[in-house]
């Protein structure tokens, strides 16, 4: 192979799949994920033998692994190489335990997140920006404190619940999340919990794919998924809450919530929206976004000059 052909065949950053172009999520339960000569597939033993379903890993943002799933190392390596995030969840996609993403991302956005999180004033500004994004149709005075914004949020959510309760002719609704008595909950609560967890998985995938930390939240704190909850809250009133109320008379609210949510992710192109909102929240002036496109994959930190190129021998010349 000539040098020119080698250069054409070599992967570049521009050729790598972008999380904003990925479709959505895939929930798996009671299957074994393996790699064969064709690709990554989910297989299950039936009375007719082993049945296989091949997974479009390169076009998925996130794969949710529910109970009873197992995955082989070759399949895991392929999924990671495609930039698809793996999230371990509880039954039905409820609860998120852990996430795994590719190590090929730069730290540009992580450094921007940590810088903002560590500065009390900037941290407060980002928290306020999150609330304003949720109440974009309301005039919010600049002088409101974070406690007042939390109170405004509570009133907004209660009003939203009341409107949807009346719209769907539901006698009474009260938000309830009881893991110990899961099956005793009404269809709206079941659908909302399942839809929210899928939303957490997608947001988790977007955060990890940008190289950010899911633990460093600006509104939530104290949990490894604090930043996931921050970002997911931006879309609940528009996506998961109306979806859950529309399933108030469903006999399978959890399954239908996941299925319809996948359709909405594709229809609304929610993944690019999440990525853009994340970048805008952390860097409204888009400085980091521009630097992220042109930065080297690895650099060295210097307290005086800033970033310097890696892969360079900085020893003094021995003349």
The CATH superfamily of the largest domain is known as CRISPR-associated endonuclease Cas1, C-terminal domain
- Widest sheet, order of strands: 1-5-7-8
**Uncertain segments:** 5-17, 290-296
Structural class computed from helices and strand pairing: alpha/beta
The dominant shape is flat
Query: Roughly how many Å is the radius of gyration?
Result: 22 Å
Q: Tally the helices: what do you get?
A: 11
Q: How do the helices and strands follow one another from N- to C-terminus?
A: HEEEEEEHEEHHHHHHHHHEE
Distance between the termini: 40 Å
Report the CATH topology name of the largest domain.
Four Helix Bundle (Hemerythrin (Met), subunit A)
Q: Main β-sheet, in a few words?
A: 4 strands, mixed
What share of the residues lie within helices? 40-55%
The average pLDDT is 80
Q: Beta fraction of the residues? A: 5-15%
Quickly give the CATH architecture of the largest domain: Up-down Bundle
Q: What is the C-level CATH assignment of the largest domain?
A: Mainly Alpha
Number of domains: 2
Q: Tally of extended strands?
A: 10
Protein name: CRISPR-associated endonuclease Cas1
Keywords: Antiviral defense, DNA-binding, Endonuclease, Hydrolase, Magnesium, Manganese, Metal-binding, Nuclease
GO molecular function: DNA binding; DNA endonuclease activity; hydrolase activity; metal ion binding
Organism: Actinorhabdospora filicis
Describe the structure.
It is a single chain. With 319 residues, the protein is an alpha/beta fold. The protein has 2 domains: 21-100, CRISPR-associated endonuclease Cas1, N-terminal domain (Ribosomal Protein L15, Chain: K, domain 2); 108-284, Four Helix Bundle (Hemerythrin (Met), subunit A) (Up-down Bundle). Helices cover 45% and strands 14% of the residues. It contains 11 helices and 10 strands. The chain has helices at 3-9, 73-81, 108-118, 120-134, 146-167, 187-209, 226-232, 236-246, 253-268, 270-282, 287-294; strands at residues 25-28, 32-35, 40-46, 49-54, 62-65, 70-71, 85-89, 96-100, 299-302, 306-309. It has a 4-stranded mixed beta sheet with strand order 1-5-7-8, covered by helices on one side. A 4-stranded mixed beta sheet has the order 4-3-2-6. The protein has a two-stranded antiparallel sheet with strand order 9-10. A hairpin with a 2-residue loop joins strand 3 (40-46) and strand 4 (49-54). Helix 4 runs parallel beside helix 5. The longest helix is centred in the middle third of the chain and has 23 residues, at 187-209. The protein is flat, with a radius of gyration of 22 Å. It starts with a helix and ends in a 10-residue tail after the last strand.
């Amino acid at each position: 192979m000539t040098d020119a052909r080698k250069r054409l065949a070599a992967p570049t950053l521009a050729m790598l799949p972008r999380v904003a172009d990925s479709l959505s999520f895939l929930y798996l339960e009671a299957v074994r994920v393996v790699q064969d000569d064709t690709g990554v597939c989910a297989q299950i033993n039936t009375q007719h033998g082993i049945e296989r379903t091949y997974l479009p890993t390169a076009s998925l943002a996130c794969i949710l692994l529910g109970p009873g799933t197992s995955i082989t190392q070759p399949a895991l390596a392929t999924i990671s190489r495609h930039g698809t995030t793996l999230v371990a969840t509880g039954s039905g996609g409820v609860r998120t335990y852990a996430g795994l993403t590719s190590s090929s991302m730069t730290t540009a956005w992580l450094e921007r997140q940590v810088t903002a999180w560590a500065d009390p004033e900037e941290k407060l500004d980002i928290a306020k920006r999150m609330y304003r994004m949720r109440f974009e149709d309301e005039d919010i005075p600049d002088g409101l404190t974070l406690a007042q914004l939390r109170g405004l949020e509570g009133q907004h959510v209660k009003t939203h619940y009341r409107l949807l309760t009346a719209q769907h002719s539901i006698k009474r609704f009260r938000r309830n999340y009881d893991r110990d008595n899961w099956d005793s909950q009404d269809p709206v609560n079941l659908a909302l919990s399942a839809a929210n967890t899928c939303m957490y998985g997608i947001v988790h995938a977007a955060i990890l794919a940008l190289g950010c930390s899911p633990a460093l939240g600006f509104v939530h704190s104290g949990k490894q998924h604090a930043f996931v909850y921050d970002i997911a809250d931006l879309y609940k009133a528009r996506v998961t809450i109306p979806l859950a109320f529309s399933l108030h008379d469903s006999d399978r609210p959890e399954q239908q919530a996941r299925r319809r949510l996948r359709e909405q992710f594709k229809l609304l192109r929610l993944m690019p929206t999440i990525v853009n909102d994340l970048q805008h929240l952390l860097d409204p002036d888009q400085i980091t976004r521009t630097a992220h496109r042109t930065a080297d994959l690895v650099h060295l930190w210097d307290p005086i000059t800033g970033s310097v190129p890696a892969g360079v021998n900085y020893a003094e010349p021995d003349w």
